[in-house]
Amino acid sequence: MTNNRERAARAVLALSASTLALGLATAAAAQTAAPKAEDTVEAVVVTGFRASLQSAMNLKRNESGVVDAIKAEDIAQFPDLNLAESLQRIPGVSISRINGEGRQITVRGLGSEYTRVRINGMEAISTTGGTANSGGTNRGRGFDFNVFASDLFNSIAVRKTASADVEEGSLGATVDLNTSRAFDSRKPQLVLSAGASYNDLSEKTTPRLSALASRTFFDGKLGMLLSAAYEERHLKEEGANITRWAVGGSNGGFNAASTVPGYTIAQINSTNAATGIFAPRIPAYVSYDIKNRRTGLAGSIQFKPDSDTEINLDMLYAYLAGVRKEAQLQAIGLSRATTGKPETIIRDGVVVGNDLVYARMDNVDLRTQSAYDELNTEFKQTTLSAKRHFGSRLEVGALMGFADSTFTQPKSTIITFDRANSQNYSYDFRKGRAPQILLGFDPTDPANWSAINGTSEVRIRPTFVENQFSTAKVYGEWEANANLKLKGGVDWRKFEYDSYGLYRTSETVSQTLTPAQLASVSKVFSGFGKNLNLPTGNATAWLVPDIDKYDALLNIYSNTGIYALTGTNNSSARGQYGAVEEQDTGLYVQADYRFEAFGVPFRGDAGVRRVHTRQQSAGYAAVGGSVQRVEVKRDYDLTLPSFNLAADVTDTFVARFSAAKTIARPGIGSLSPGGDVAVQGANRSFSSGNPYLNPTHSKNIDVSLEWYPRTGAMIAAGFFYKKIDTFVATQSEQRVYNTLGLPDSLIAGTSATPDMVFQVSKPVNTKGGNLKGFELNVQQPLTFLPGWLSHFGVIANYTYVASKIEYPTSSAAGAPVVINDLIGLSKNAANATLYYETPTWSVRGSLAYRAGYLTQVPGSDGNTVQGTNETLNVDMQASWNIRENLKLTVEGVNLTDEFNDQYVGDSNRLNVYTHSGRQFIVGLRYNF
Fold this sequence. Notes:
8% of the residues lie in helices and 55% in strands. It contains eight helices and 47 strands. Strand 19 and strand 20 form a beta hairpin. By secondary structure, the chain is mainly beta. The chain has a 22-stranded antiparallel beta barrel. A five-stranded mixed β-sheet has the order 1-6-7-4-5. Strands 15-16-19-20 form a four-stranded antiparallel β-sheet, with no helix packed on it. The radius of gyration is 29 Å and the shape is globular.
């Protein structure tokens, strides 16, 4: 991590602390100037960003538990263009990104697998695909927020504490997304907006459109709303992709003639991960060209025939269509056994610590590859809810709904050209985070590359993942008196997951091309390295396969002959198959209460939830030396008590205490009884699921103190503690294939042999641990300042989280464990926003800091860990109300062009270093 990065992180934390101090000082001044309680809650008419902050603050203040919210500034106008980007402004919430925009969230150090998302009161999962560097295809319970246009939504609430009337399944938080409804605004609405988005790395401009129409009929008894949004994005992601580091002795070690000053060949080729010398496995540069089209539709019909009855029908549709093209230039031979690494001779090198940071080599196998992927997500949800009051004390209600998220990758193709035993190749990691890679030849000349049967690859791997949710719920609420309300209900949820893929029988079987043929099916990729600060001499252009021309010549999509695709009878594709069905039936009772003690009014709830889960999973596994479809069924019961108490200590001060037992079920992809043998170039792995994984149980304590000194102002501190009984960790080790008990037929037709080392992984329940931390949150409009300065305001929050857990290192009995931070946990996170708002102008700038976090423990290939370094994102928004109903907006996202910086090992060895540029959006919004 650089000194500049550390200074930037300290700046964000200092700004958060300064804002907190400023909030305390100004709030104190406000209290002095206006001691009367009624003056602090006087009605102030505000609009826009300040109005959304005030509305969200009111929701937080009135809840019994710990809830944070985000409200739309106006109908069809959310504060951020991406829902995850908005969520990261909430204390305790951090996000992971894909293609420069938010994809998933982490809440209080617990990743997306531990967070439930409900849309209009119904649980849902949204899944997308991505590069391996951004999480790949989502086969878990995590929710991908990048599927949806934010204009379709009216509010987000993040429930960090549990109550019995909210379904179980979350350790981090339950996130409620709500689309707009006609009764949100009783007056007729027609909103149109149009804009354009520009990415400075791709240098492409794309359109953005949205519309909303809403109206009530029959004296307000019937309301209808329809909204639509369409957006295109065209961007690039470029940088270095090293695919981890490994000790010199791995994959057969370097050639015995290798020389590194000061080291013997035995030291160079040591296989001891503790003392050996680590070298990059596949030094490479990569460029992704990404085009996305995001379409969204939301509709709502509300019917209120009388004051006691309300019926709501909500519908949501989203379609994310993406095309990703890849150009990559890599030293594949450094991780290839037999004919790769053992033939490579190190002529010179420099070791820093235990890392071979510079090397000049001969006999290096190089590869250039093109990839083409189509990635489509279709999401559909329909929810019907109704409630009826019987008299003034009894209310009954029901909800039913269905949601479907289908991810399809109908085309996923990689074609490679190769260059064996290239001379005078060198890499150098001493010249900056992006390494210098010198090839020693012209990589744009077709004569310098070959396509050879048995070495070059043609991978065709279509993939499909579907998630379905069905929900039914009935409940009743009886107000016994002014201080007690009794609640009870029954809910049923059915979740279905299905995943499959198709592969070629052998991806290294292809036609050997003549030099003329290779030249005819290739093209030069150029323009690489913009804003990457590449060291001098790096290639910015190289030859790549032209997939369209290759197909035209060889008909690779014909699904015949050597290009035929197979499913469960193919050892590689078989691992993509998995099916899970989960049914949860819950029953809850809860009492909402109010009372006064010692002159202080209290309010809260206490309840218990009882749940029965029936789970069935299926996959393909090795049984008695052959591979068979295996099904596993299991049942378990859960009892989950919860308690929330809020004390309105004064008119401006609220104290909260919450205690609950919560659970999170294991990730869907982890429950398959099957296994996946994967051979991709020099990467060889065997991963299996575990249908007997237990849910993660947690006992939670939350304490929150909140001060609301004046309208629009809040200073809050929250403390949380979770005693977690078990985590699901990935048990990872290196094993020779012929020791796994798997038939050799599973790797027939691949480049792997039974005597090669595979990375073997399996999810297991491990010993739990304690998670603890605190949140600080301040919102302060600077209305006490004179003149134009009174239009400023600040928002800042800071979160600290700590948790240490045990990670297994091997499946062997008595194997040692590693104690390290929880995967995905950033110890420090901070956000700060400075805004200026008048009836005509609105400007705000935001900083979002997330400390580094681990992604795998232990790491692969002998590395102690794998992780992602800290990030600091800077965004800006401005708007001008040209007329009362016409607004011009300008937005800048990722203004510092933050890099995705991933590492392996304790020495911060570079693994991934890519960026996707800055995004600028200009738009007009007209409200009729």
